[in-house]
Write a structure and sequence with these properties.
Layout lengths: L1 H19 L18 E2 L26 H8 L3 E5 L5 E6 L25 H7 L12 E6 L4 E6 L7 E3 L4 E2 L3 E2 L2 E2 L13 E3 L4 E3 L13 E5 L4 E3 L18 E4 L12 E5 L18 E3 L6
Parallel strand pairs: 1-2, 13-15
Antiparallel strand pairs: 2-3, 3-4, 5-16, 6-7, 6-12, 8-9, 10-11, 12-13, 14-15
Length: about 290
């Protein structure tokens, strides 16, 4: 379900890429999660934060977005822009997901509200606020060909990646400590909650990926993150580093060994002895950019 949810949109967008390229435009903050999606492949539009086409150079510039990025073109809540020099990609999102959640207002003006699985427990641990209450604007600019850094770097509190849904990805910590400490019971079915001032994921977001190899999003260092399974072997990868990353082919690369790319996976280790899986409990292996 989750794979077809985005992949079919991406397939449709391939045929429309030339039309979309002329659209450009910034992200909307439409609170019903039906934002228009646009892509600019370098026709003079703003390239987003951190990108300066007059000074940026790279060894392998893109002339068009690669197939993995087309998933973001298909995603209704993300705007994506390729810089004029083809060296960076900028993503912008209002931070609101395009799927159901118990954190949408229960009045259901969005059409996306669902009741929690355990309403009593959820209400006891529920984070304050509804998704509609917050107005956010997340901007991330990453190199088109990210590289593994000499040393890894710890993830900060706050947004460390952007999911295909448009909502930000957080690590395994809250401001008060580990997410297991009185917080997880207030997560929705996508391992997410609100606060501070935004809806965000800590655990495997089942609306995007559930025990599969689907693309989940992109991290602040420019590397993609996928579900628990590996496309190249179908099963769970056994060669992951301490950040749950490795180099292999994916659905979006060619099939030969030379096409393999470094990427992350959602942790396949059960969390709190339940059907919970942390999205990103490790360090960045690349050089992270700020998510503003």
């Amino acid at each position: 379900m989750s794979k077809s949810h985005y992949a079919l949109r991406a397939l449709f967008c391939v045929s429309l890429l030339s039309v979309l390229a002329a659209c450009g435009g910034g992200a909307s903050t439409d609170e019903t999660a039906t934002n228009d999606t646009s892509v600019d492949t370098g026709t003079g539009a703003d390239t987003g934060s951190g990108s300066d086409s007059s000074t940026t150079t790279c060894d392998s510039p893109m002339t068009e977005l690669s197939s993995a990025y087309l998933e973001f073109v298909a995603a209704p809540n993300v705007t994506i822009v390729l810089s004029e020099d083809g060296c960076t990609v900028s993503l912008e999102s209002a931070g609101k997901p395009d799927h159901t959640s118990s954190y949408w207002d229960s009045g259901n003006a969005s059409g996306l509200y669902v009741e929690p699985e355990d309403e009593t427990l959820f209400n006891q641990q529920r984070s304050p606020g509804d998704i509609e209450d917050y107005i956010n604007d997340y901007d991330l600019t990453v190199p088109v060909s990210p590289e593994i850094a000499a040393t890894s770097s710890a993830t900060p509190l706050g947004a460390i990646g952007i999911a295909l849904s448009g909502a930000p990805i957080f690590n395994d910590s809250e401001g008060t400590g580990d997410v297991s400490l009185g917080v997880i019971q207030g997560f929705d079915r996508n391992g997410a909650h609100t606060g501070p001032q935004t809806y965000h994921y800590h655990l495997e977001p089942q609306a995007i990926s559930y025990d599969d190899d689907s693309l989940v999003g992109i991290m602040a260092d420019g590397f993609f993150i996928f579900g628990r399974r590996c496309y190249s072997t179908v099963g769970y990868p056994t060669d992951l580093d301490e950040s749950n990353g490795h180099t292999s082919i994916t659905l979006y690369t060619g099939g030969s060994e030379e096409d393999a790319e470094y990427h992350y996976h959602i942790s396949s280790e059960q969390y709190l002895n339940g059907d919970y899986y942390l999205i990103f409990p490790g360090n960045f292996q690349g050089t992270p950019s700020d998510i503003n």
